[in-house]
Model the fold of this input.
Amino acid sequence: MNTFENYINIEAETINEFIKQHHPITLNEVKNDSFSRYDFTFYSAGTPNEHYTPVLDGICEVKTRKNSSTDYPEGIMIELDKLNAVAKAVADEKDEFHNINKTIKGFFLFKYVDKMMLFDIETITTDNLQFRKLPKQTATNNNEWVTKAVLIIPYDDAVLTI
Done:
């Protein structure tokens, strides 16, 4: 039986696996409650140059699927509401005075059984907006289906693939 706690544990495993595989990325905070607009925050060393290594603060939503990415050849599906929630969290952080010199970005981390991909929300376009009947919640065994606005993002748009 799916419970919210099981769902959170699966996503925590995905977060830990992602952090372990990328040494320049450091976990900052996991948000494992149902009220958060995102799942975790991280720090990353960014792209170094001779004089300065910028630090990136990432706000990230996680989706863990029990399927192979080949089951969905068109790409990943992001709910428009989730994209807007991460964008709002980024905007709120950028508004904080103590973050004035930080580079803050929003991300989606998707894990399938065969690969994991990180998407930068600033590179996502709304060209492929669709409306699909989907379960109201995936964290529980809820059989209620609702129409949701979703974006289909090609796998090639990932900024990082593992």
